[in-house]
Amino acid sequence: MKKLLVLLFAVTSCFTATAQSYIGYFHDNYAGVQSVLFNPASIADSRFKTDINLFSISGSVQNDLYGVKLFDVYKDGYDFDSEAIMTPTNANNALINFDIMGPSFMFNIAPKHTLAVFSRARSVSNFRNVNGNLVDEVKEGLDEASDFNLNAGSPNGVSHSWGEVGLSYAAVLYQNNQHFLKGGLTAKYLQGGVNGYLQGKNVEVIFNENTAFPELSTLESKGEITVGASQDFEENEDYEFDSSATGFGFDFGLVYEWRPDYADYDLSNAAPADNNFRDLNKYKLRFGLSVTDIGSINYKNARQDTYNVTGIVTEGMIDDAENLYDFLNDNYTLVSSKRGMKTNLPTAIRADVDWNMFRKFYLNLNGDISMVSADKLNGNSIGDRVSLTPRYESRWFSFYVPMTWMEYSGMQVGSGLRLGVFFVGSGSILSNVVSKESKAFDFHLGMKIPVYEKKFKDTDGDGVIDKEDACKKVAGPAENNGCPWPDADGDKVFDKDDLCPDTAGPVENKGCPWKDTDGDTLLDNVDNCPDIAGPVENNGCPWKDTDGDTVLDKDDACVEVAGLVENKGCPVLDADKDGLPDDKDGCPLLAGPVENNGCPVVNEQTLETLRVEAKSIFFTSGKATLDNAKMGETSGRLDAIKEILKNYPNAKFAINGHTDNVGNAKANQKLSEARAKVVMDLLVEKGVNPANLTSQGFGATKPVKSNKTAEGRAENRRTEIVYLGNL
């Protein structure tokens, strides 16, 4: 039965060594080339210049039949059959994965483009829909079995090992403010190894024990089984490598990153030392979606046979069989046989969401869904899985704790770490420490050479990074290789810009001292007439005599009219005899001081007269019309005011109206404004220049007496003339 054992081992090895690799590790931003195995888009815009995998390995096993206290298994005397906790059903399952990654590397070929090349050896085994009760009946062998009658159903087992050489390309597809999208594609050349499978269809098994003659115990069965292998083990029981068993595979994926702080990474604001922020993780949320392992391997030398296993055999016939094919051909009916087959890869959809909670702390939710039917003949597949993984990550250190629900084996908790060139972890180690019924175990470890993107060093902070700076500790411009420009004469004008590099001079004269061209003791930079000598007090220019009367303009009161020296250069024309020539006198017919432009000065006596006259202008109660009963007196008052104002042609006066507080405030305001306007208009009619007047009302806001008495209110109802100053 050696050939039988070889084939059965290929199918049932899934019990001994989960289909997912590197659980908890591959979503780390520093997972490097390993991350391409799960989503080829992940390597674009990575934190690596290059990442070189020297060697890494991942293995896992899971099932829903046997549960053990994992660390007791390795103790001396442990009896797996008696001490393991079994949970048999009509459809038990098991799954194994073994993944070795050989020399592999990734590197950036441009800021937005990345390549990866990897080599990989893989083995995935599945055993599905096995009646666990049958396993329990025959685990000691048929010699120890008692009568049983079981429906074996449609068990389906497959084991496949192969090698891969992959080329991955990833690029940034879209970048706009906070939105960032990248995509990736992997093409894989596949080399087949060993493939074996066994599938039943409606199989029923009845065992009748003969205690007197055990070799005559019978095994009655019915149904159909299909047996296949990557080579014809009936003709040659030794495994032979088949170089013609090849194929191609593909992976593709997308990664979207939400970067709300995109303005902090604006390349237009990046200093050279920032290295375009390539060393920083910039997202708040990352979403990844990929489809992996699309493809198959063509085994041209494969053999597949289907048998009708309806019949009865004895235990002795089973013991005498030399190999599986002899046993099947001698005792059952061969329904069909064919040569050559294509074996699929374990195609799966993978998704993850990564949340940067705070600084270097992340929370990742990821999962896998198999795209291969569990009933497919020779159908390799992974197990469905969901993981929630908090992690801390930095450039040289990461720690992660994956919490995973696995198809068949349920919940498990593990941990792992990455420390520089070394990483190790398990997605189930913590739960296996405490569980008495572990149904899964996995591990991963590896060594690599990471070369990270990093911020460049700029010791002197001059914007020239140290590796390009000829003066690393002294700031200097980039055009001088980071070194300061020399300044031989110490005048703060660099020699490259200094027209007099050996003689100190001001910056505005390009480093040269100023000259005194006209010799008037004023340097040219402050001399308004650098070519003509002049006094210092006239900024180096000679004094002018515009009117040619020998009185220099600075001393001439009539600069443009010739006059006498004794009259300060002015002719004697002063009609009002106030000391100002008429052409300079604002009031040539009215004497006034020079400081008031020759016009009379409004004095306090004049203002008092105006106050008295203005108070005697009477209006009809509540109206802006003059009181007819007192019209004669009012007209006389206005004439008196007119005569006073005409004496001050350059003065500005305001006619202000006031009321008491009786009645509506808004009405009082309008009334005061109207009365002031009436007085102003009457004065203009009498010949006062309107340019000398303005009018304004204040309502009851500026009382001069208390409004509580009639006398006070009468005083508050008034018109005032106020001097505002000269025009």
What does this protein structure show overall?
- The chain has 727 residues and is mostly beta strands.
- The protein folds into 2 domains: 2-17 and 19-452; 604-726, OmpA-like domain (60s Ribosomal Protein L30, Chain: A, 2-Layer Sandwich).
- 13% of the residues lie in helices and 36% in strands.
- It has 10 helices and 26 strands.
- It has helices spanning 2-12, 80-83, 132-138, 315-320, 324-331, 429-434, 604-615, 631-646, 665-685, 710-716; strands at 48-63, 66-67, 85-86, 92-101, 104-110, 113-130, 148-153, 156-176, 179-208, 218-229, 246-258, 285-308, 311-314, 333-344, 348-358, 361-370, 385-393, 397-400, 403-406, 410-413, 415-419, 422-426, 440-452, 651-658, 693-697, 718-726.
- The protein has a 21-stranded antiparallel β-sheet that branches. It has a 3-stranded mixed β-sheet with strand order 25-24-26. Strands 2-3 form a two-stranded antiparallel sheet.
- Helix 7 (604-615) packs antiparallel against helix 8 (631-646).
- The longest helix is centred in the C-terminal third of the chain and has 21 residues, at 665-685.
